[in-house]
Design goal:
Blueprint: H1 5-17, H2 21-34, H3 41-57, H4 60-80
Helix pairs in contact: 1-2, 2-3
Length: about 80
């Protein structure tokens, strides 16, 4: 689990790039909860609104999110060695 707010934001961007929309939404919301007055808070809020629409439109995203989470875990482990 990330400890710093910025780690949630950064991981959210990774999830977004992997099209793991629900995971990205969760991380961006956690970032804003931890650091609501961040310099980039308004930009992150825009992403949250966009992701709320994207994540709610498709049930296929749930399946894709699970695959993305597994893939991301392998990427993080490989990068940390």
């Amino acid at each position: 689990m990330p400890e710093l707010a910025e780690e949630y934001r950064d991981r959210g961007m990774i999830y977004l790039n992997l099209e793991c929309f629900r995971a990205a939404l969760f991380d961006f919301q956690a970032y804003l909860k931890m650091l609501p007055v961040a310099k980039d808070a308004d930009a992150v809020r825009v992403k949250v609104v966009e992701l709320q629409g994207t994540a709610s439109r498709s049930t296929e995203l749930d399946y894709k999110k699970e695959e993305c989470n597994g893939s991301l875990f392998m990427v993080v482990i490989a990068a940390s060695r």
